[in-house]
UniProtKB/TrEMBL annotation, chain A:
It is a peripheral membrane protein. Pfam families: NDUF_B7 (PF05676). This is NADH dehydrogenase [ubiquinone] 1 beta subcomplex subunit 7. It is found in: Mitochondrion inner membrane; Mitochondrion intermembrane space. Keywords: Disulfide bond, Electron transport, Membrane, Mitochondrion, Mitochondrion inner membrane, Respiratory chain, Transport. The keyword Isomerase does not apply. Belongs to the complex I NDUFB7 subunit family. InterPro entries: NDUB7. It comes from Bombyx mandarina.
From TrEMBL, chain B:
It is found in: Mitochondrion inner membrane. InterPro entries: NADH_DH_su5_C, ND/Mrp_TM, NU5C-like. Keywords: Electron transport, Membrane, Mitochondrion, Mitochondrion inner membrane, NAD, Respiratory chain, Translocase, Transmembrane, Transmembrane helix, Transport, Ubiquinone. Residues 389-570 form the NADH dehydrogenase subunit 5 C-terminal domain. It comes from Bombyx mandarina (Wild silk moth). This is NADH-ubiquinone oxidoreductase chain 5. It comes from the Eukaryota. It is an enzyme of class 7 (translocase). One of its GO terms (cellular component) is mitochondrial inner membrane. Residues 102-382 form the NADH:quinone oxidoreductase/Mrp antiporter transmembrane domain. GO terms for biological process: ATP synthesis coupled electron transport; electron transport coupled proton transport. Core subunit of the mitochondrial membrane respiratory chain NADH dehydrogenase (Complex I) that is believed to belong to the minimal assembly required for catalysis. Complex I functions in the transfer of electrons from NADH to the respiratory chain. The immediate electron acceptor for the enzyme is believed to be ubiquinone. GO terms for molecular function: NADH dehydrogenase (ubiquinone) activity; NADH dehydrogenase activity.
Amino acid sequence: MGQIMGGYHARSVDLNSDDNPTFDPQAGFQYERKQREMIAKEEDLISARIPNKYRDYCAHYLLDYQVCRYKEMPLLYRCAHEKHNYLNCEQQDYVLRMKEFERERRLRVRENRISATA
Amino acid sequence: MCFNSFFFLFFFMLINFFFFVYFIMNGLSVFFEWEIISFNSMSIVMSILLDWMSLLFMMFVSLISSVVIFYSKSYMNSELNLNRLIILVLMFVFSMVLLIISPNLISILLGWDGLGLISYCLVIYYQNLKSYNAGMLTALSNRIGDVMILMVICWIMNYGSWNYIFYFDFMKNDYVMFIISFMIIIAAMTKSAQIPFSSWLPAAMAAPTPVSALVHSSTLVTAGVYLLIRFNYLLIDMFFFKVLLFLSILTMFMSGISANYEFDLKKIIALSTLSQLGLMMSILSLGFPDIAFFHLLTHAMFKALLFMCAGVIIHMMNDIQDIRYMGGLSLYIPLTSLCLNISNLSLCGIPFLSGFYSKDLILEMVSFNSFNLMVFILFYLSTGLTVFYTFRLIMYVMISDFNLMMIYNLYDEDYIMLNSMFVLLFMSLLSGSFLSWFIFFYPYMIYLPFNLKLMVIYVSILGSILGFMVSNMGIYSLNKLLLSYNLSSFLCLMWFMPNLSTYGLSYIYLNFSQILFKNIDMGWSEIYSGKGIFNILKNYSVFYNIYQMNNFKIYLFSFILWFMILFIFFFI
């Protein structure tokens, strides 16, 4: 629901929440944006049997959490710190994606405005 | 027998718990396969799948059933054949375990049919006409699901084995799988009482209360949800899952409204079970089987407790179930009221009781993902309705003035029943937190705007205010409701579903056959065959008779006439 309401004003530029960015990632920035770095290693993720959909930029925190779960079972509340780190990272990642969505929307509006005046 | 069964089931629960912890720690799944017979290219095998999910569910089933058996010792104390009830409950637990550990459709059918049959025997346990009718409705509604499972068994023969889990990945886009998944969804809908099969669940409250606590709240009705959780990988992209989403949300909404019109204590709880089943089914069809399983388990705990409290109250009130006859009970039975309140508040999702962890997670996932506005509104309306009927129930039963008897002779006397309730009280308090740590290997991140996050609180406050107002409604306002009698009767009769699934189904055919009987058998065919020919012959014979009689008269008359003529001619 929040997603629909948030993405509603992007419909006018034909932008949906699942769309990928289409503009140059450096466009409009004073500094050079660096590509994000994947910290968790592929072999660690395979060995921990983490499913593909969880192998994102926060996977190293997820690995920490899984290790803690294994060590502290069944007193899992002791892993609250690791869980919080992971969820915090996921939240930051989400905010980043939403910012990228908003940037895409504004760039599309700008593009439409320029093409209309030209 | 009661205590033996209790200890056996409790011990079984402990074993399951230790294995669950061991399996979840090491990420284990154990698959046993025992070949019974093999001929041509087909083999009949008995297979068992033990993973954390089946072990956890078995643990909950055995815990609730052990506590219920302990409770029955006191609740059914005047029953002559108590052992019969205990044996039925044990058979029920066995069927449930068979269903839980089976990755094979034949053994699922055995468990599934076992559940249907034993639940029928338990519903008709008190032998009277109402129980027989309720039992027949229950058995026949569940029979539709059994037939669907049988047909699935026939269809899955195409693949050469009944172990369905082998075909999820490879046969997902096969047309046969499409048919199989449709039938599985129908089967699950009958067992979990979704629209249009909802009417049997409130009717099944004719069963003894301990049975309702075990069967019709926490285990049997969740069998359908569990089956769909197992089949989830297959069904997730199917069109039927969207239909299921629609139906389950309507079930949730419908039962929430009906519960507000109901005055039978057990039926209110049954309708709230129906509402929670709709919630489980809907989150399942939105693609979150682990959250559905989480809610299934927490709900099992607090709903079993709620039924057990209702049983104690019914016992103390001399078998009165109508909440209008109750009131002010918290002064007389504080311990039972404590249990009832905690389970009720847990049902509402009050922090930090067990229901909160699952229900709040479900609602936040619905808010967080991109679903339809209608889905969103119905989810929150149903949550508000849950709080509405719960507060109405609390007000009627525990807070308002007492209504019927001159002297209440009520007190928390029965410590067998109370002890068994305290076990579930403990679990209702803690199981939500315990399970949320255990079963989510990969925690869900939820990030919502402030007001959307607090939406649950808003609808809960609104629901509680309405519940308070409705329970204090005067006779004038109740009479006002009669102005909208048609609407009220539609809403309180579960959208006429009990009528539709009983005589509603047979009415058209019976009415049509009555018309045929009247017009064909008794009408035209009678006119043109038996009765008609008889009438024609009779009329002719009457006519000839008259003619014949008249002939005689004419003959005599002509004789006299001739005689007179002759007399005149010859003598005058």
